[in-house]
Amino acid sequence: MRKEDKFSNVAKLGELLKEYPHFYLVDVEGMNAADTSALRRKCFQSELKMVVVKNSLLQKALEASDIEAESLYGVLKGTTAVLFTQVANAPAKMIKEYASKKATKPALKAAYAEEGIYVGANQLDALCSIKSKNEVIAEIVALLQSPAKNVVSALQSGANTIHGVLKTLGEKAE
After folding, report:
1. Hey, where are the domains in the chain?
2. Does CATH number 3.30.70.1730 belong to domain 3-130?
3. In what order do the strands lie in the sheet with 80-85?
4. For residues 77 and 136, what is the distance between their CA atoms, to the nearest angstrom?
5. Is the pLDDT at 158 greater than 70, yes or no?
6. How many Cα neighbours within 13 Å face the side chain of 27?
């Protein structure tokens, strides 16, 4: 690879690191063309950007970025694919789905999600449980609505009780 091409690839990786807030490093070594193609299709459907990179170029791009990713350098061995995403837990769920089908690849090497670094395949469950921004907002809205719904419900049941008492008293008076 020419030096100009290397600089170009590092610059492209740097742009992707700025564009996407989360990324996963995945081991795809030994996957055949059909499996890799299926993985790329699944990534496209899940709105993930998959890029197979040279480890040394990815390390240079990480060094040039604002991300403190020194702990990721140790996993940059073998064939590495980077899954870039806007939703922190989407790649973890996809990798877990592959694992449930007894597939050994793709395997999680490491991830940078929600400004935290997760190293090792044993972190997959923790990454799956990360809530996306929209999920957190939905939970907060539900929590904020809950007391208001309880008050409205109590008022409605109280109104029904009073209405029932007045109706009964009115019928007795006749």
Report:
1. 3-130, 131-174
2. yes
3. 49-53, 80-85, 22-27, 107-113, 116-119
4. 35
5. no
6. 17
Q: Quick one: average pLDDT of 133-157? A: 75
**Farthest CA pair distance, the chain:** 101
CA 108 to chain centre: 13
For 30-44, what is each residue's pLDDT tens digit? 888 888 898 999 999
Torsion of the alpha carbons at 120, 44, 129 and 127, rounded to the nearest 10: 20
Cis ω for the linkage preceding 147 (within 30 of 0) = no
Encoded amino acid at 29, one letter: E
- Cα 34–Cα 35–Cα 37 angle in degrees, nearest 5: 65
Q: Contact at 8 Å (CB) between 117 and 25?
A: no
Distant-in-sequence, close-in-space partners of 17: CB < 8 Å, separation ≥ 6: 23, 61, 62, 65, 67
Q: State how far the Cα of 119 lies from the Cα of 152, in Å rounded to an integer.
A: 48
Q: What is the CA radius of gyration of the chain?
A: 26
Q: Who has greater pLDDT, 42 or 173?
A: 42
